[in-house]
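Render this sequence as a predicted structure.
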Amino acid sequence: MVTASLYRQLVPAAPLHRRTDRDTYPSPEAELRARLAARLRPPDARPRLRAPTLVSSWQGTIDGLLMAFPSWGVADPALAAAYRSVITSMPTGTEFVVVHHRAQRASVEGWFAEAGHPAENVIYVPLADYVNFTDWAEDAYASVLDGVDGSLCLMEPWEFPRGGDALIAEAVQDHTGVRAGQAPLIFQGGNCLVGDRFWLLGKDYFADSLALVDGERPPVLAPPSTAPGDFVTSLYADYLDAGRELVVVGTDRPIALRELYGTRQGDDYFLDIAADGAGTYQPIFHIDMFLTLAGPAPGPGGRFRVLVGSPAAADRALGTQSPFALDDVYDAVASGLEGLGMEVVRNPLVHRPELGATFTLAELKAMAARPGNQVLLEPLAELAAAGAVDGSAVRVRAWHHVTWNNCLVEAGTDRRRVYLPTFGHPPDDDLAPLDAAMADLWAGLGFEVVLLGDFNPFARRQGVVHCITKYLRRGA
Protein backbone atom coordinates (compact mmCIF):
# COMPACT_ATOMS: atom_id res chain seq x y z
CA MET A 1 0.00 0.00 0.00
CA VAL A 2 0.99 3.65 -0.38
CA THR A 3 2.19 4.56 3.10
CA ALA A 4 1.92 8.10 4.43
CA SER A 5 5.69 8.40 4.11
CA LEU A 6 5.71 7.31 0.46
CA TYR A 7 2.79 9.58 -0.35
CA ARG A 8 4.70 12.56 1.01
CA GLN A 9 7.76 11.61 -1.03
CA LEU A 10 5.67 11.48 -4.20
CA VAL A 11 3.51 14.53 -3.44
CA PRO A 12 5.65 16.80 -1.23
CA ALA A 13 3.30 19.76 -1.78
CA ALA A 14 0.17 17.85 -0.74
CA PRO A 15 -1.92 19.67 1.88
CA LEU A 16 -1.70 18.50 5.46
CA HIS A 17 -4.61 17.14 7.53
CA ARG A 18 -6.33 15.29 4.72
CA ARG A 19 -9.55 13.51 5.67
CA THR A 20 -7.95 10.19 4.74
CA ASP A 21 -4.93 10.71 6.98
CA ARG A 22 -4.35 8.47 9.98
CA ASP A 23 -2.16 8.88 13.02
CA THR A 24 1.40 7.63 12.62
CA TYR A 25 3.31 5.88 15.40
CA PRO A 26 7.02 5.52 16.21
CA SER A 27 6.75 1.73 16.44
CA PRO A 28 4.30 -1.15 15.90
CA GLU A 29 4.12 -1.53 19.69
CA ALA A 30 3.01 2.09 20.10
CA GLU A 31 0.31 1.62 17.45
CA LEU A 32 -0.99 -1.51 19.19
CA ARG A 33 -1.12 0.31 22.55
CA ALA A 34 -3.04 3.18 20.99
CA ARG A 35 -5.54 0.78 19.43
CA LEU A 36 -6.13 -0.73 22.86
CA ALA A 37 -7.24 2.63 24.24
CA ALA A 38 -10.93 1.73 24.22
CA ARG A 39 -10.27 -1.44 26.23
CA LEU A 40 -8.14 0.44 28.76
CA ARG A 41 -10.86 2.95 29.61
CA PRO A 42 -12.70 2.66 32.93
CA PRO A 43 -16.11 1.00 32.52
CA ASP A 44 -18.83 3.49 31.62
CA ALA A 45 -21.56 3.33 34.26
CA ARG A 46 -24.05 5.34 32.19
CA PRO A 47 -26.82 3.25 30.66
CA ARG A 48 -27.08 2.81 26.90
CA LEU A 49 -29.65 5.06 25.20
CA ARG A 50 -33.09 3.57 25.70
CA ALA A 51 -34.40 4.41 22.24
CA PRO A 52 -31.50 5.67 20.09
CA THR A 53 -32.35 7.62 16.98
CA LEU A 54 -29.85 9.33 14.69
CA VAL A 55 -30.20 13.04 13.95
CA SER A 56 -31.51 13.41 10.41
CA SER A 57 -29.31 14.31 7.46
CA TRP A 58 -32.10 16.34 5.83
CA GLN A 59 -35.36 16.63 7.77
CA GLY A 60 -36.13 19.83 9.66
CA THR A 61 -34.26 23.08 10.06
CA ILE A 62 -30.64 23.02 11.21
CA ASP A 63 -31.02 24.28 14.79
CA GLY A 64 -27.75 23.05 16.27
CA LEU A 65 -24.37 22.66 14.58
CA LEU A 66 -20.93 21.59 15.80
CA MET A 67 -17.77 22.91 14.14
CA ALA A 68 -14.07 22.50 14.97
CA PHE A 69 -11.37 25.08 14.28
CA PRO A 70 -7.75 24.04 14.86
CA SER A 71 -5.07 26.71 14.96
CA TRP A 72 -3.64 25.79 11.58
CA GLY A 73 -7.10 26.17 9.98
CA VAL A 74 -7.76 29.54 11.60
CA ALA A 75 -4.36 30.76 10.38
CA ASP A 76 -4.94 29.64 6.78
CA PRO A 77 -6.79 32.43 4.89
CA ALA A 78 -8.39 30.07 2.37
CA LEU A 79 -9.68 27.64 5.01
CA ALA A 80 -10.81 30.46 7.31
CA ALA A 81 -12.75 32.12 4.48
CA ALA A 82 -14.65 28.89 3.85
CA TYR A 83 -15.36 28.38 7.56
CA ARG A 84 -16.71 31.90 7.77
CA SER A 85 -18.92 31.46 4.70
CA VAL A 86 -20.73 28.68 6.58
CA ILE A 87 -21.03 30.73 9.78
CA THR A 88 -22.32 33.78 7.91
CA SER A 89 -24.84 31.74 5.91
CA MET A 90 -26.54 30.11 8.90
CA PRO A 91 -29.61 31.92 10.31
CA THR A 92 -29.04 33.97 13.45
CA GLY A 93 -31.15 31.58 15.54
CA THR A 94 -28.77 28.70 14.94
CA GLU A 95 -26.99 27.38 18.02
CA PHE A 96 -23.35 26.40 17.70
CA VAL A 97 -20.93 24.24 19.65
CA VAL A 98 -17.45 25.40 18.63
CA VAL A 99 -14.33 23.36 19.38
CA HIS A 100 -11.14 25.42 19.12
CA HIS A 101 -7.55 25.65 20.26
CA ARG A 102 -7.31 27.95 23.26
CA ALA A 103 -4.92 30.32 21.52
CA GLN A 104 -7.48 31.06 18.79
CA ARG A 105 -10.45 31.90 21.01
CA ALA A 106 -10.51 35.63 20.21
CA SER A 107 -10.30 35.09 16.46
CA VAL A 108 -13.06 32.49 16.44
CA GLU A 109 -15.32 34.55 18.70
CA GLY A 110 -14.88 37.44 16.27
CA TRP A 111 -16.16 35.35 13.36
CA PHE A 112 -19.47 34.64 15.09
CA ALA A 113 -19.88 38.20 16.36
CA GLU A 114 -19.27 39.65 12.90
CA ALA A 115 -21.83 37.22 11.44
CA GLY A 116 -24.43 38.51 13.89
CA HIS A 117 -24.82 35.38 15.99
CA PRO A 118 -25.74 36.26 19.60
CA ALA A 119 -23.09 35.28 22.13
CA GLU A 120 -25.60 33.15 24.05
CA ASN A 121 -26.09 30.96 20.94
CA VAL A 122 -22.44 29.88 20.81
CA ILE A 123 -20.83 27.48 23.28
CA TYR A 124 -17.04 27.44 23.03
CA VAL A 125 -15.17 24.22 23.79
CA PRO A 126 -11.45 24.94 24.24
CA LEU A 127 -8.80 22.28 23.71
CA ALA A 128 -5.16 22.61 24.71
CA ASP A 129 -2.99 23.98 21.95
CA TYR A 130 -0.99 20.75 21.81
CA VAL A 131 -4.06 18.61 20.94
CA ASN A 132 -3.77 17.55 17.31
CA PHE A 133 -7.42 17.67 16.28
CA THR A 134 -8.68 18.51 12.78
CA ASP A 135 -11.52 20.50 11.25
CA TRP A 136 -13.28 17.29 10.10
CA ALA A 137 -15.99 17.72 12.74
CA GLU A 138 -18.33 15.20 11.08
CA ASP A 139 -16.46 11.97 11.57
CA ALA A 140 -15.39 10.97 15.09
CA TYR A 141 -18.91 10.36 16.44
CA ALA A 142 -22.56 10.08 15.47
CA SER A 143 -25.27 12.44 16.79
CA VAL A 144 -27.81 10.22 18.54
CA LEU A 145 -30.96 11.30 20.36
CA ASP A 146 -32.60 9.29 23.10
CA GLY A 147 -36.18 8.89 21.89
CA VAL A 148 -37.41 8.67 25.49
CA ASP A 149 -36.11 11.92 27.00
CA GLY A 150 -34.75 13.76 23.93
CA SER A 151 -31.21 13.99 25.31
CA LEU A 152 -28.34 14.13 22.82
CA CYS A 153 -25.31 11.86 22.79
CA LEU A 154 -22.18 11.97 20.65
CA MET A 155 -21.71 8.24 20.14
CA GLU A 156 -18.11 7.32 19.38
CA PRO A 157 -16.92 4.21 17.53
CA TRP A 158 -14.73 1.61 19.19
CA GLU A 159 -11.66 2.90 17.32
CA PHE A 160 -10.91 6.12 15.45
CA PRO A 161 -7.72 6.67 13.41
CA ARG A 162 -7.15 10.35 14.31
CA GLY A 163 -6.57 10.43 18.05
CA GLY A 164 -6.95 14.19 18.52
CA ASP A 165 -10.45 14.13 17.04
CA ALA A 166 -11.33 11.29 19.41
CA LEU A 167 -11.02 13.78 22.29
CA ILE A 168 -13.76 16.07 20.98
CA ALA A 169 -16.86 14.20 22.23
CA GLU A 170 -15.64 14.14 25.85
CA ALA A 171 -14.62 17.81 25.64
CA VAL A 172 -18.08 18.74 24.37
CA GLN A 173 -19.61 16.72 27.20
CA ASP A 174 -17.57 18.73 29.72
CA HIS A 175 -18.89 22.07 28.44
CA THR A 176 -22.48 21.29 27.38
CA GLY A 177 -25.44 19.11 28.21
CA VAL A 178 -24.46 16.72 25.41
CA ARG A 179 -23.38 13.28 26.57
CA ALA A 180 -20.55 11.19 25.15
CA GLY A 181 -20.89 7.46 24.65
CA GLN A 182 -19.10 4.64 22.89
CA ALA A 183 -20.36 1.77 20.78
CA PRO A 184 -18.60 -1.58 20.15
CA LEU A 185 -18.70 -0.86 16.43
CA ILE A 186 -16.62 0.79 13.72
CA PHE A 187 -18.14 3.79 11.95
CA GLN A 188 -17.46 7.40 11.08
CA GLY A 189 -20.07 10.11 10.77
CA GLY A 190 -19.26 10.81 7.14
CA ASN A 191 -20.11 7.22 6.22
CA CYS A 192 -23.63 7.53 7.66
CA LEU A 193 -26.63 9.32 6.11
CA VAL A 194 -29.98 9.37 7.88
CA GLY A 195 -33.26 9.24 5.96
CA ASP A 196 -36.87 8.95 7.11
CA ARG A 197 -37.53 5.26 7.73
CA PHE A 198 -33.98 4.17 6.84
CA TRP A 199 -30.37 5.13 7.35
CA LEU A 200 -27.42 4.43 5.06
CA LEU A 201 -24.06 3.08 6.15
CA GLY A 202 -21.10 2.69 3.82
CA LYS A 203 -20.18 -0.97 3.48
CA ASP A 204 -16.51 -0.47 4.41
CA TYR A 205 -17.35 0.18 8.06
CA PHE A 206 -19.94 -2.58 8.26
CA ALA A 207 -17.12 -4.88 7.13
CA ASP A 208 -14.79 -3.37 9.75
CA SER A 209 -17.42 -3.95 12.45
CA LEU A 210 -17.76 -7.56 11.36
CA ALA A 211 -14.00 -7.94 11.68
CA LEU A 212 -14.10 -6.35 15.15
CA VAL A 213 -16.76 -8.65 16.63
CA ASP A 214 -15.34 -11.69 14.83
CA GLY A 215 -11.76 -11.01 15.98
CA GLU A 216 -9.65 -12.66 18.63
CA ARG A 217 -10.65 -10.26 21.44
CA PRO A 218 -14.01 -8.71 20.49
CA PRO A 219 -15.55 -6.10 22.81
CA VAL A 220 -18.87 -7.99 22.69
CA LEU A 221 -19.73 -11.64 22.04
CA ALA A 222 -22.34 -12.74 19.53
CA PRO A 223 -24.85 -15.32 20.79
CA PRO A 224 -23.95 -18.78 19.43
CA SER A 225 -27.12 -18.98 17.36
CA THR A 226 -26.73 -15.53 15.73
CA ALA A 227 -24.89 -14.99 12.44
CA PRO A 228 -22.15 -12.32 12.70
CA GLY A 229 -23.84 -10.05 10.15
CA ASP A 230 -27.16 -10.18 12.00
CA PHE A 231 -25.39 -9.51 15.29
CA VAL A 232 -23.61 -6.43 13.90
CA THR A 233 -26.92 -5.15 12.50
CA SER A 234 -28.51 -5.56 15.93
CA LEU A 235 -25.63 -3.66 17.55
CA TYR A 236 -26.15 -0.72 15.20
CA ALA A 237 -29.82 -0.74 16.23
CA ASP A 238 -28.91 -0.91 19.93
CA TYR A 239 -26.38 1.93 19.85
CA LEU A 240 -27.25 4.20 16.89
CA ASP A 241 -30.82 3.82 15.66
CA ALA A 242 -33.52 1.47 16.91
CA GLY A 243 -36.33 2.60 14.62
CA ARG A 244 -34.87 3.03 11.15
CA GLU A 245 -33.87 0.23 8.80
CA LEU A 246 -30.13 -0.05 8.23
CA VAL A 247 -29.23 -0.05 4.52
CA VAL A 248 -25.61 -0.94 3.73
CA VAL A 249 -24.27 0.82 0.61
CA GLY A 250 -21.47 -0.69 -1.44
CA THR A 251 -20.38 -3.24 -4.01
CA ASP A 252 -20.63 -7.00 -3.64
CA ARG A 253 -16.89 -7.44 -4.15
CA PRO A 254 -13.87 -5.23 -3.43
CA ILE A 255 -13.37 -2.59 -6.11
CA ALA A 256 -10.62 -3.60 -8.53
CA LEU A 257 -8.66 -0.35 -8.43
CA ARG A 258 -4.95 -0.28 -7.65
CA GLU A 259 -3.44 2.56 -5.70
CA LEU A 260 -0.80 3.43 -8.34
CA TYR A 261 -0.70 3.23 -12.14
CA GLY A 262 2.01 4.05 -14.65
CA THR A 263 0.44 5.72 -17.71
CA ARG A 264 1.54 7.36 -20.91
CA GLN A 265 -0.31 10.13 -22.74
CA GLY A 266 1.34 11.11 -25.99
CA ASP A 267 4.98 11.70 -25.12
CA ASP A 268 4.30 12.28 -21.42
CA TYR A 269 4.63 9.76 -18.60
CA PHE A 270 2.63 9.88 -15.38
CA LEU A 271 2.59 8.08 -12.08
CA ASP A 272 -1.08 8.23 -11.09
CA ILE A 273 -2.12 8.01 -7.44
CA ALA A 274 -5.50 6.73 -8.52
CA ALA A 275 -7.16 5.26 -5.43
CA ASP A 276 -6.56 8.08 -2.95
CA GLY A 277 -9.99 8.68 -1.43
CA ALA A 278 -11.51 5.47 -2.79
CA GLY A 279 -13.03 2.89 -0.48
CA THR A 280 -12.88 -0.88 -0.61
CA TYR A 281 -16.57 -1.43 -1.36
CA GLN A 282 -17.58 2.16 -2.15
CA PRO A 283 -16.28 4.59 -4.79
CA ILE A 284 -15.27 7.13 -2.13
CA PHE A 285 -14.31 6.23 1.41
CA HIS A 286 -17.30 8.14 2.88
CA ILE A 287 -20.79 8.08 1.34
CA ASP A 288 -21.41 11.75 2.20
CA MET A 289 -18.97 12.54 -0.60
CA PHE A 290 -21.19 11.06 -3.33
CA LEU A 291 -24.71 10.73 -1.90
CA THR A 292 -27.11 13.44 -0.72
CA LEU A 293 -30.51 12.84 0.88
CA ALA A 294 -33.13 15.36 -0.26
CA GLY A 295 -36.30 13.94 1.32
CA PRO A 296 -39.52 12.68 -0.30
CA ALA A 297 -40.75 14.19 -3.55
CA PRO A 298 -43.77 16.48 -3.03
CA GLY A 299 -47.25 15.01 -3.21
CA PRO A 300 -48.90 11.84 -1.96
CA GLY A 301 -46.69 8.80 -2.26
CA GLY A 302 -43.65 10.80 -3.31
CA ARG A 303 -40.57 8.59 -3.37
CA PHE A 304 -37.55 9.48 -1.27
CA ARG A 305 -35.04 11.41 -3.34
CA VAL A 306 -31.33 10.76 -3.20
CA LEU A 307 -28.71 12.50 -5.32
CA VAL A 308 -25.93 10.22 -6.57
CA GLY A 309 -22.74 11.67 -8.00
CA SER A 310 -21.70 10.86 -11.56
CA PRO A 311 -18.13 11.42 -12.78
CA ALA A 312 -19.34 10.64 -16.30
CA ALA A 313 -21.77 13.58 -16.14
CA ALA A 314 -18.94 15.85 -15.00
CA ASP A 315 -16.67 14.63 -17.81
CA ARG A 316 -19.41 15.34 -20.37
CA ALA A 317 -19.89 18.85 -19.04
CA LEU A 318 -16.16 19.63 -18.83
CA GLY A 319 -14.97 17.78 -21.92
CA THR A 320 -12.55 15.76 -19.80
CA GLN A 321 -11.79 12.09 -19.31
CA SER A 322 -11.23 10.59 -15.86
CA PRO A 323 -9.78 7.09 -16.28
CA PHE A 324 -9.93 6.17 -12.58
CA ALA A 325 -13.33 7.65 -11.71
CA LEU A 326 -15.18 4.32 -11.16
CA ASP A 327 -18.29 5.37 -13.10
CA ASP A 328 -19.61 1.80 -13.07
CA VAL A 329 -19.49 1.70 -9.26
CA TYR A 330 -21.50 4.92 -8.92
CA ASP A 331 -23.98 3.53 -11.45
CA ALA A 332 -24.30 0.32 -9.45
CA VAL A 333 -24.95 2.26 -6.24
CA ALA A 334 -27.61 4.34 -8.02
CA SER A 335 -29.25 1.20 -9.40
CA GLY A 336 -29.27 -0.41 -5.96
CA LEU A 337 -30.98 2.59 -4.38
CA GLU A 338 -33.55 2.66 -7.17
CA GLY A 339 -34.18 -1.01 -6.47
CA LEU A 340 -35.07 -0.04 -2.91
CA GLY A 341 -37.79 2.26 -4.23
CA MET A 342 -35.92 5.56 -4.05
CA GLU A 343 -36.00 8.27 -6.70
CA VAL A 344 -32.39 8.71 -7.80
CA VAL A 345 -31.20 12.02 -9.23
CA ARG A 346 -27.77 12.00 -10.85
CA ASN A 347 -25.47 14.99 -10.54
CA PRO A 348 -21.93 15.77 -11.73
CA LEU A 349 -18.99 14.79 -9.52
CA VAL A 350 -15.47 15.60 -10.65
CA HIS A 351 -12.47 13.27 -10.32
CA ARG A 352 -9.58 15.63 -10.93
CA PRO A 353 -5.78 15.24 -10.96
CA GLU A 354 -3.42 17.59 -9.19
CA LEU A 355 -0.06 17.73 -10.94
CA GLY A 356 2.78 17.09 -8.52
CA ALA A 357 6.51 16.51 -8.51
CA THR A 358 8.51 15.18 -11.44
CA PHE A 359 10.99 12.31 -11.06
CA THR A 360 13.10 10.38 -13.51
CA LEU A 361 12.25 6.72 -13.88
CA ALA A 362 15.63 5.92 -12.33
CA GLU A 363 14.79 8.00 -9.25
CA LEU A 364 11.49 6.17 -8.85
CA LYS A 365 13.28 2.83 -9.20
CA ALA A 366 15.61 3.83 -6.37
CA MET A 367 12.60 4.83 -4.29
CA ALA A 368 10.94 1.46 -5.00
CA ALA A 369 14.02 -0.36 -3.71
CA ARG A 370 13.56 1.08 -0.22
CA PRO A 371 11.78 -1.06 2.37
CA GLY A 372 8.01 -0.66 2.29
CA ASN A 373 7.87 0.90 -1.19
CA GLN A 374 7.24 -2.25 -3.22
CA VAL A 375 3.88 -0.84 -4.32
CA LEU A 376 5.85 1.20 -6.88
CA LEU A 377 7.11 -1.85 -8.75
CA GLU A 378 4.02 -2.58 -10.85
CA PRO A 379 3.43 0.99 -12.10
CA LEU A 380 7.13 1.35 -12.89
CA ALA A 381 6.94 -1.82 -14.96
CA GLU A 382 3.95 -0.31 -16.79
CA LEU A 383 5.96 2.83 -17.53
CA ALA A 384 8.89 0.81 -18.85
CA ALA A 385 6.55 -1.24 -21.04
CA ALA A 386 5.12 2.03 -22.41
CA GLY A 387 8.61 3.14 -23.48
CA ALA A 388 10.04 5.01 -20.51
CA VAL A 389 13.79 4.68 -19.88
CA ASP A 390 15.83 5.59 -16.81
CA GLY A 391 16.20 9.21 -17.90
CA SER A 392 12.52 9.70 -18.77
CA ALA A 393 10.64 12.34 -16.78
CA VAL A 394 7.61 11.01 -14.89
CA ARG A 395 5.05 13.45 -13.43
CA VAL A 396 3.05 12.47 -10.37
CA ARG A 397 -0.71 13.02 -10.57
CA ALA A 398 -2.67 12.80 -7.32
CA TRP A 399 -6.42 12.46 -7.97
CA HIS A 400 -9.09 13.95 -5.70
CA HIS A 401 -12.86 14.39 -5.73
CA VAL A 402 -14.67 17.68 -6.29
CA THR A 403 -18.19 17.04 -5.07
CA TRP A 404 -21.33 19.08 -4.55
CA ASN A 405 -23.01 16.11 -2.84
CA ASN A 406 -21.15 17.04 0.34
CA CYS A 407 -23.50 19.88 1.28
CA LEU A 408 -25.88 20.86 4.09
CA VAL A 409 -29.60 20.17 3.62
CA GLU A 410 -32.58 21.33 5.62
CA ALA A 411 -36.17 20.53 4.70
CA GLY A 412 -38.30 22.17 7.36
CA THR A 413 -41.96 23.06 7.39
CA ASP A 414 -41.29 26.71 6.52
CA ARG A 415 -37.75 26.50 5.11
CA ARG A 416 -36.29 24.23 2.45
CA ARG A 417 -32.71 25.23 1.94
CA VAL A 418 -29.43 23.75 0.73
CA TYR A 419 -26.00 25.18 1.51
CA LEU A 420 -23.80 24.38 -1.49
CA PRO A 421 -20.00 24.56 -1.64
CA THR A 422 -18.61 26.28 -4.70
CA PHE A 423 -15.49 25.44 -6.69
CA GLY A 424 -15.48 27.71 -9.76
CA HIS A 425 -12.82 30.05 -8.42
CA PRO A 426 -9.36 30.80 -9.90
CA PRO A 427 -7.49 28.75 -10.96
CA ASP A 428 -10.47 26.35 -11.17
CA ASP A 429 -12.75 28.69 -13.13
CA ASP A 430 -13.80 25.83 -15.40
CA LEU A 431 -15.93 24.50 -12.54
CA ALA A 432 -18.15 27.61 -12.40
CA PRO A 433 -20.73 26.17 -14.87
CA LEU A 434 -21.07 23.13 -12.61
CA ASP A 435 -21.63 25.40 -9.60
CA ALA A 436 -24.48 26.99 -11.56
CA ALA A 437 -25.84 23.64 -12.75
CA MET A 438 -25.96 22.31 -9.19
CA ALA A 439 -27.75 25.44 -7.99
CA ASP A 440 -30.32 24.99 -10.77
CA LEU A 441 -30.74 21.31 -9.91
CA TRP A 442 -31.55 22.05 -6.26
CA ALA A 443 -33.82 24.96 -7.16
CA GLY A 444 -35.70 22.56 -9.42
CA LEU A 445 -36.20 20.29 -6.42
CA GLY A 446 -37.85 23.15 -4.56
CA PHE A 447 -34.93 24.31 -2.39
CA GLU A 448 -33.62 27.78 -1.72
CA VAL A 449 -29.94 27.67 -2.64
CA VAL A 450 -27.28 29.33 -0.51
CA LEU A 451 -23.88 29.38 -2.20
CA LEU A 452 -20.91 29.03 0.15
CA GLY A 453 -17.30 30.04 -0.40
CA ASP A 454 -14.46 28.35 -2.26
CA PHE A 455 -14.08 24.76 -1.04
CA ASN A 456 -11.30 23.66 -3.40
CA PRO A 457 -8.75 23.71 -0.54
CA PHE A 458 -10.93 21.17 1.28
CA ALA A 459 -11.58 19.02 -1.79
CA ARG A 460 -7.81 18.65 -2.24
CA ARG A 461 -7.83 17.29 1.32
CA GLN A 462 -10.60 14.78 0.39
CA GLY A 463 -13.49 16.55 2.11
CA VAL A 464 -15.94 19.43 1.69
CA VAL A 465 -18.52 21.30 3.81
CA HIS A 466 -20.55 18.43 5.31
CA CYS A 467 -17.23 17.08 6.59
CA ILE A 468 -16.52 20.18 8.71
CA THR A 469 -19.95 20.33 10.37
CA LYS A 470 -22.03 18.05 12.60
CA TYR A 471 -25.79 18.29 12.91
CA LEU A 472 -26.70 18.33 16.60
CA ARG A 473 -30.36 19.25 16.56
CA ARG A 474 -33.11 19.69 13.99
CA GLY A 475 -36.26 21.82 14.17
CA ALA A 476 -39.60 21.37 12.51
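Summary. Residues 43-47 have pLDDT under 50 and may be disordered. The chain is about 30% helix and 25% strand.
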